[in-house]
Amino acid sequence: MTYIDPQKVPSLYVRDLLDLAQRDDFDRIESTIERLGGCTRPIQLVGHTTTFDAATHEVLRHYTTASEPLGRLLTACGNRRASRCPTCSRVYAADTYQLIRAGLAGGKGTPEQVRAHPRVFTTLTAPSFGPVHNRPTTRTGKPFPCRCGTLHPAGHPALGTPLDPTTYDYAGAVLFNAHAGKLWDRFTTYLRREISRAVGLTVTELREQCRVSFAKVAEFQKRGLVHFHAIVRLDGPGGSTEQPPAWATIGLLTDAVRRAADRVHVTVTSDSIGERELRWGAQLDVREIRANDATANGSAPLTDAAVAGYVAKYATKSAEGTGTIDRPLYCGPCKGRGRVPTPAGLTDECRACEGTGLAEPIADLRVAGHVRQMIRTCWDLGSVADFAELKLTRWAHMLGFRGHFSTKSRRYSTTLGAIRAVRRTWQTEQARIRTGHAPLDPTATLVVSDWRYLATGYTPGEELLAETVRDNRQATQRLKREGDLQ
């Protein structure tokens, strides 16, 4: 093999890759990168794990990162956001799909009989805070001009932005995002009350006969407002494993959802903005989830797989679809306060942000004007004492929304933790088989570990290898979609 002096190569990435390629243990480095599947920013760990016999204290196995080619262990970052790590977000989406599908069709510890329970797919939207550019369509799907008189093409940057920014209620929009989680909590409370009232029971008596289970995901609209897609299901008192009572029907559940959504409101009062009443928008959609492919009222069916795929799709997204930034805006050293403590016990102006509390000026953000104004409103309202508990400056990059993007009730189905535990167990078993180790009895062994965080990311050469893995996987997926690969 011809030796190439890496120092004579101008590219840092290629130079580092040549260094790695000329190592005797390059195959191990390459397999480690392949195992990560192209993770964008893996976690580097150093440490060791030792397995002892619990009775004799004999060392059965020992692993240390000192035996690794570069002296550290790379693990996937596990970030759910596609904008941060497409590879790990796909794993998260797959796990979410399995979790949602289990609550619709059974599996993962949930019985298949759950398909016979009453289930609806509900979309709770935000109200209007002023007219925006849109692309309305007829019942047949044919678009017609926006109220501004223009027929906007799909994906046009003007969509979702106010027709008149000077009259748009930015404060109301930000406060809606900030209170969306509370609106959802009140919706679930009112839903139980509406069901109880419809069947002549108290809420306590309802709990003894029927349980309301749900799973939801948040999605940002183009106008920068969050709305929720939710699966709502009626079970027996024990959850998915028990049949609901005979009176629990789709019609009862649909009517209760509509009445509960209409009742929900949160009143916000402040000297700076007066009194605001926050509610769900008028565009409420409630559709039955069917257990088969039969059509309902001549329309296309909403099936288990379709709903699970839809929810999993949005579980990996954040607010970036609105054009906002994907990082906090507050200054790290002073935590957005603009001042830092001094050794004398006083405070001084933060040098990093020059007392503004901002990591970067809002005016310099590369975002559209509508998004910029949403962020600026978050920052301005965040300095008002009445809204301190909303932490709007901390969540300005999320346009005020600070809730979880996907949640579920306790007995809807399995958990993400359980799904990941099964995958870890399988991966551990596969690693044991590859290394030829005998299986161990976990009840008769003791594991002692010591792990520390070292850094995040790859070396330049490893980054090139990871990019190759990502390209190969994308090509494989493309061939599968085109039908050239089984």
Topology diagram in text:
Layout: H1 12-21, H2 26-36, E1 43-53, E2 59-64, E3 73-75, H3 86-105, E4 119-124, H4 170-199, H5 203-209, E5 211-220, E6 226-235, H6 250-263, E7 266-270, E8 274-278, E9 285-288, H7 304-315, E10 339-341, E11 347-349, H8 369-382, E12 406-408, H9 416-435, E13 445-456, H10 460-482
Antiparallel strand pairs: 1-2, 1-3, 1-13, 4-6, 4-9, 5-6, 5-12, 7-8, 10-11
Helix pairs in contact: 1-10, 2-10, 3-7, 4-6, 4-8
Commentary on this structure:
Helix content is 33%, strand content 17%. The protein has three domains: 6-80 and 417-482, no CATH class; 86-149 and 156-324 and 401-414, no CATH class; 339-398, no CATH class. It is built from ten helices and 13 strands. A hairpin with a 5-residue loop joins strand 1 and strand 2 (59-64). It has helices at residues 12-21, 26-36, 86-105, 170-199, 203-209, 250-263, 304-315, 369-382, 416-435, 460-482; strands at 43-53, 59-64, 73-75, 119-124, 211-220, 226-235, 266-270, 274-278, 285-288, 339-341, 347-349, 406-408, 445-456. It is of the alpha+beta class. The radius of gyration is 27 Å and the shape is globular. It has a five-stranded antiparallel beta sheet, sandwiched between helices. Strands 1, 2, 3 and 13 form a four-stranded antiparallel beta sheet that branches. Strands 7-8 form a two-stranded antiparallel ribbon. Helix 1 (12-21) crosses helix 10 and helix 4 packs across helix 6 (250-263).
| Sequence of secondary-structure elements | HHEEEHEHHEEHEEEHEEHEHEH
Strand share of the residues? 15-25%
Largest sheet: 5 strands, antiparallel
Radius of gyration: 27 Å
State the helix count: 10
Oligomeric assembly: single chain
Give the mean pLDDT: 88
Pfam families: RepSA
Protein name: Plasmid replication initiator protein
Organism: Kitasatospora saccharophila
